[in-house]
Amino acid sequence: MINLQKHQFLIILLPIYEDLGDKHQALAVYGQALLLSREFKDKGGEATILNNIGGIHNHLGDKQRALEFYNQSLSISKKIEDKSIYRTLSPQTFCRYS
User: Fold this and answer.
1) What pLDDT, in 10s, does the model give residues 21-73?
2) Residue 21 to residues 2, 26, 98: CA-CA distances in angstroms?
3) Assign residue 22 a region: left if phi > 0, alpha if psi is -120 to 50, beta otherwise?
4) How far is CA 87 from the centre of its chain?
5) pTM of the prediction?
6) Which of 2, 25, 32, 88 has the smallest count of CB within 10 Å of its CB?
7) Count of CB atoms within 10 A of residue 5's CB?
8) What are the backbone angles phi and psi of residue 21, rounded to the nearest 5°?
9) Dist CA 68 CA 51 (whole Å)
C-alpha cells in the first residue's frame, strides 16, 4: 500500500518539477515512477512515463536517448492496444530524429 501511495504522490510531483524547469530532477522522479509502474504492472502508466522521459531527453537535446524512450513507449502501447499514445508519438516526432 505504501508503494501505491508513493506512486500516486510521484505522479502528482512530476508536472511540478517540469514546470519549474528542473528537468534532471524530473528525470529522477520519472525513474522512480517507472519502477513503481512496472512493479504494479501498470502498462499504460509505464508507456506514458517512458514517453514523458523521452520528451525530457528531447528537450535536453539528447535526441538519440529520446528516440529510445519513445520507441519503448510505442512498443508497449501497441501491445496493450492503447491508441492514445499516438497523439503524442506522431510520424513527425520520429522524422525529427532521422
Assistant:
1) 888 888 998 999 999 889 989 898 899 899 989 989 998 999 999 999 999 99
2) 28, 9, 27
3) beta
4) 14
5) 0.78
6) 2
7) 9
8) 85, 10
9) 10
Q: Which three cell numbers, joined as nine digits, stand for 31?
A: 525513474
Give me the CATH number covering residue 23.
1.25.40.10
Structural domain count, the chain = 1
Convert the pLDDT of each residue in 69-85 to its tens digit: 999 999 998 898 876 76
User: Which residues have a Cβ under 8 Å from the Cβ of 39 and sit 6 or more positions away?
Assistant: 3
- Whose CA is closest to 58, among 9, 23, 15? 23
Domain of residue 80: give its range.
2-95
Helices and strands (DSSP H and E) totals, the chain: 5, 0
